[in-house]
């Protein structure tokens, strides 16, 4: 059998491996500082070579931000930071907390008064939960008013709605954990509220209480839900919440550069050389202007007859094979639009304004109902022989 | 109709022992299983709040 000749390995003296250089940049023997600097670089290079974090971080941190981005788009990141803060402070609180009904209150008292920085960490966790709920609602408001829940982001909106429910459930289960009178009775009321729902309500209440009565197992169940079940679900759903957003960003950046999108919008007629010309990017960062415009613009356009979205040339004539407005990115164009139709008279695209109209109807209806429907006047039933007071008291 | 909760009681060694909870409807008839407050016990509404096995 002939002997197999293996090729010689490439010469290695020209490309020194990280950490193997014998001289510094001046040709001198490296000192302690040079070795220390080289050790850090070598460590990072060793990790980058084996994990590939360098390209990932470059793509993640140096991704192009589309036009029209302002501070309102940071609310989602702020919410995620609030969640991470809750996770970190919760881990430290869990080191000292005891989910035993006879010891829970004392352990919280111990955290607050005895543990070093315990009150600070507990305060961060307590107020951080309020901030997280607030940021979630602000983020949802931004998404609603900017129209970012529409195509192709309906699924992302639904995932965000589930995240809202999980955040509320997290607050509810965490409220019981101090196990003082207020948290106990607030949880009783909350469980009874859940129980009032038909058919599934009683089962839901039994699940939360771990039985038909509030018992010592209830605290353990709330603690397990609060610490294990919901954080894992939230973390997984945050990943699902962020993944399509990144693809959409890449598509927008690709369209802004005149290239064809590589992800969600590929093959929908939005890429290519003439795609970006049809997109009217918003350059304003004024939130109030967007809100007012989303309400007023459809009504003004109804009287003026001007199209609000131009998919044709400068004169407003529809371009051949134009894509309906619902395929574009709603939040970078501003306004609230859905269900586009084509005018039979002018042949231009029009969009209905029912989201903004329904929102205004809700606000106006609530205000009107508050003014028209007055609460029943409750009178204090005084004992016989005394005059009844007219003050509204519910005894 | 909110259930009126009662507890089974018995006397042993001159002490009153409180037993399991049960509920009453608006006619003061005892339900076999306790219901939560806000659960309806009369009419058709009672079928929207089914009884659960006690644990």
Tell me, rounded to a whole number, the average pLDDT of chain A.
Answer: 74
Largest interface: A-B, 15 and 15 residues
Strand content of chain A: under 5%
Q: Strand percentage of chain B, roughly? A: 25-35%
Arithmetic mean of pLDDT of chain B: 78
Order of helices and strands of chain B: EE
Instruction: Give the strand tally of chain B.
Output: 2
Give the low-pLDDT segments of chain A: 260-286, 306-312, 323-341, 350-355, 376-380, 382-395
Question: What structural keywords apply?
Answer:
heterodimer, A: 395 residues, mainly alpha, two-stranded antiparallel sheet, 2 strands, B: 55 residues, mainly beta, two-stranded antiparallel ribbon
Q: Short description, anyone?
A:
The complex is a heterodimer of chains A (395) and B (55). In chain A, 56% of the residues lie in helices and 2% in strands.
Explain how this protein is built:
The complex is a heterodimer of chains A (395) and B (55). Chain A has 395 residues and is mainly α. Chain A is built from 13 helices and 2 strands; from the N terminus they run H-H-H-H-H-H-H-H-H-H-H-H-E-E-H. Chain A has helices at 32-51, 53-61, 75-94, 104-113, 118-145, 154-176, 181-195, 200-209, 216-256, 275-278, 287-304, 330-333, 354-372, and strands at residues 338-342, 349-352. Chain A has a two-stranded antiparallel sheet. In chain A, helix 3 runs antiparallel to helix 5, helix 5 (118-145) runs antiparallel to helix 6 and helix 6 packs across helix 7 (181-195). The longest helix of chain A is centred in the middle third of the chain and has 41 residues, at 216-256. The radius of gyration of chain A is 30 Å and the shape is extended. Mean pLDDT of chain A is 74; it is low at 260-286, 306-312, 323-341, 350-355, 376-380 and 382-395. Chain B is mostly beta strands. Chain B has no helices and 2 strands. Chain B has strands at residues 4-12, 15-24. A two-stranded antiparallel ribbon of chain B has the order 1-2. In chain B, strand 1 and strand 2 form a beta hairpin. Chain B is elongated and about 45 Å long. Chain B starts with a strand and ends in a 31-residue tail after the last strand. In chain B, 11% of the residues are buried. The model of chain B has no long low-confidence stretch (mean pLDDT 78). The A-B interface holds A 192-193, 195-196, 198-199, 201-203, 205-206, 210-213 and B 21, 33-39, 48-52, 54-55.
């Amino acid at each position: 059998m002939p002997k197999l000749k293996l090729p010689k390995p490439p010469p290695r003296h020209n490309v020194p491996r990280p950490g193997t250089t014998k001289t510094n940049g001046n040709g001198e023997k490296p000192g302690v500082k040079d070795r220390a600097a080289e050790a850090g670089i070598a460590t990072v290079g060793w990790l980058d070579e084996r994990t590939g974090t360098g390209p990932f971080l470059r793509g993640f941190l140096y991704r192009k931000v589309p036009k029209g981005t302002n501070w309102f788009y940071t609310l989602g990141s702020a919410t995620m930071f609030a969640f991470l803060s809750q996770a970190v402070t919760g881990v430290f609180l869990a080191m000292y907390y005891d989910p035993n009904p006879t010891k829970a209150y004392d352990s919280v008292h111990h955290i607050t008064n005895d543990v070093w920085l315990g009150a600070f960490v507990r305060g961060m966790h307590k107020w951080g939960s309020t901030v997280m709920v607030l940021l979630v609602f602000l983020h949802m408001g931004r998404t609603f008013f900017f129209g970012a829940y529409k195509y192709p982001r309906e699924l992302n909106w639904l995932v965000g709605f589930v995240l809202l429910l999980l955040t509320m459930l997290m607050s509810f289960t965490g409220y019981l954990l101090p196990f003082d009178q207020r948290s106990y009775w607030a949880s009783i009321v909350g469980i009874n509220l859940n129980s009032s729902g038909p058919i599934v309500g009683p089962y839901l209440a039994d699940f939360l209480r771990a039985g038909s009565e509030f018992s010592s197992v209830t605290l353990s169940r709330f603690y397990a839900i609060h610490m294990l079940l919901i954080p894992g679900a939230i973390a997984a759903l945050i990943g699902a919440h962020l993944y399509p957003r990144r693809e959409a960003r890449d598509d927008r950046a690709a369209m802004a550069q005149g290239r064809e999108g590589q992800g969600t919008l590929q093959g929908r007629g939005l890429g290519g050389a003439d795609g970006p010309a049809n997109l009217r990017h918003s350059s304003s960062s004024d939130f109030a202007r967007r809100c007012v415009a989303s309400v007023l613009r459809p009504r003004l356009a109804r009287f003026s007859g001007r199209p609000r979205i131009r998919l044709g040339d400068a004169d407003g004539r529809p371009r051949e094979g134009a894509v309906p407005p619902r395929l574009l990115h709603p939040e970078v164009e501003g306004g609230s639009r859905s269900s586009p139709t084509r005018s039979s008279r002018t042949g231009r695209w029009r969009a209905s304004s029912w989201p903004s109209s329904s929102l205004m109807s809700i606000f106006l209806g609530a205000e009107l109902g508050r003014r028209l429907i007055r609460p029943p006047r409750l009178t204090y039933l005084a004992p016989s022989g005394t005059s009844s007071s007219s003050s509204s008291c519910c005894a | 109709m909110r259930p009126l909760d009662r507890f089974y009681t018995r006397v042993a060694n001159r002490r009153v022992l409180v037993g399991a909870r049960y509920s009453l409807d608006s006619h003061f008839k005892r339900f076999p299983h306790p219901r939560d407050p806000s659960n309806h016990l009369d009419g058709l509404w009672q079928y929207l709040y089914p009884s659960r096995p006690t644990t």
